[in-house]
Design a protein that fits this description.
With about 450 residues, the chain is of the alpha+beta class. The protein contains twelve helices and 20 strands.
């Protein structure tokens, strides 16, 4: 209900750091009111067009349009319904990340010190003379030694939806019974810490194709790999400039949905699992995820040792609604694959397989071929002070602890209907402004 988080006010925080390729030519498209309203050209966060096209992806896009999904050249105008190539965070073909964009340009500032190969052990939480809990900094292990880093104004925790709840629990903030189980003094019993985990589960349907090159065969020979390397060296294009997914689509899993609730990441390749070699046959992968999952998981410490990874329980597909969307989304994928635009490539469903047709079968197979899309959020959710599950207020301040703020994806009450990277930067913009304003 806080107006700071409505559409228009969030849009301004997206625009604050965007550097969109559409503004590279000062005379191009600037009369487009949508461009002025939804994009910016002066920020640190570079957004470019992709530098390659794939025949099989062009055919998938056309097939999606034949299946009723309109073409789109911009998923960021308030309605993401459509199919088209994703824009990417690159600069001149090189991957653009937050370190390059925001940190490197200011490394020489006298008020900035960056430590690498350091790990937060816990936050320094104490009670002041009034009995209030106050965060005074953090205990950090650097070079094998513990260092107490004291904060003059406030501490900002940005360890992500996995690391943030772990650090809070190690600091005595979390579910009291869990902390006691691991011998940690309970400084603030806050059951919402580590709860409410949400993620986008991508169901990776694979289709074999004929008569068209994909990365599977292109990268399966020394000559093919050499061609890929040379194209990148001399043109800064080709497969080495690829984002993880090239073609995207937002649509509905069924006609009764009020707005697009599934997202596609389509790739001109296939592999058994991340980290394994590509298949030795030509294929494409049409990964589809439920944008608004109702399943909720958790992230909790397994011991009082900061070196130990936490227990992550996503609980994917644990609700009937999510199971229904999973089955329906695979049927949407099959419908696209059967359209005339793909017919000449004779697509053959390799995973999950056409023999699986019922909801029960498709849900089971969806679990077998699905993986995280690396969008965990929600484990320190924002909410009102009277919400027992809330961890931070609408200004990202930890409820019940003074001088402690969280600025990462863990504060999202519900997951965004799309990728979470840029929304997290939007959260950071708000946090920075509120910190400066005291």
């Amino acid at each position: 209900g806080d107006e700071a988080w409505n559409w228009n006010n969030c849009l301004q925080d997206f625009l604050a750091h965007e550097s969109n390729w559409r503004y590279d030519n000062p005379h191009a498209e600037l009369a487009d009111t949508d461009l002025r309203k939804f994009h910016s050209g002066k920020g640190e966060w570079r957004v470019e067009k992709q530098r390659l096209r794939w025949e099989i992806l062009e055919a998938f896009s056309e097939a999606a349009q034949q299946a009723g999904i309109p073409a789109s050249d911009d998923f960021n105008r308030g309605n993401n319904f459509g199919v088209g190539y994703f824009e990417v965070n690159q600069r001149s073909g090189w991957r653009w990340n937050t370190s390059k964009a925001f940190l490197r340009p200011i490394m020489k500032r006298p008020n900035l010190t960056v430590w690498t190969e350091a790990q937060v052990k816990n936050l320094l939480i104490e009670r002041n003379a009034s009995g209030e809990l106050v965060c005074n900094g953090a205990q950090v292990v650097k070079g094998g030694e513990e260092v107490a880093v004291k904060a003059v104004r406030e501490t900002v925790l940005c360890a992500g939806a996995i690391g943030t709840p772990q650090i809070l629990e190690l600091s005595g903030i979390g579910q009291g019974s869990l902390l006691q189980q691991h011998g940690i003094d309970v400084k603030l019993d806050k059951p919402g810490v580590g709860a409410n985990l949400q993620d986008h589960l991508q169901i990776r349907a694979v289709f074999k194709v004929q008569g068209v090159k994909t990365l599977n065969t292109l990268a399966n020979s020394l000559w093919g790999k050499a061609q890929i390397g040379m194209e990148y060296v001399f043109k800064r294009s080709g497969p080495m400039s690829m984002a993880p997914s090239q073609l995207g689509a937002f649509t509905k899993s069924s006609a009764d949905r009020p707005y697009p609730n599934i997202q596609y990441h389509v790739q001109p390749l296939s592999l058994p699992a991340f980290g394994q070699p590509l298949h030795n046959f030509n294929a494409f992968t049409a990964s589809v995820c439920n944008l608004n999952p109702s399943s909720r998981g958790s992230v909790h410490i397994k011991s009082s040792r900061f070196q130990d990874a936490p227990a992550i329980a996503p609980n994917y597909l644990s609700t009937e609604e999510d199971q229904k969307v999973a089955a329906d989304s695979l049927r949407v994928t099959r419908n696209i694959a059967q359209q005339p635009a793909l017919a000449k490539y004779k697509p053959e469903e390799f995973k999950p397989g056409v023999e699986f047709q019922t909801d029960e079968e498709l849900v089971r197979l969806a679990g077998d071929i699905a993986t995280t899309i690396f969008h965990p959020v929600g484990t320190a959710k924002m909410g009102a002070a009277n919400d027992p599950a809330a961890v931070v207020d609408s200004r990202l301040r930890v409820i019940g602890v003074k001088h402690l703020r969280i600025a990462d994806a863990s504060v999202m009450p519900t997951i965004t209907s799309g990728n979470t990277n840029s929304p997290t930067l939007m959260i950071a913009e708000k946090a920075a402004r509120w910190i400066l304003n005291g």
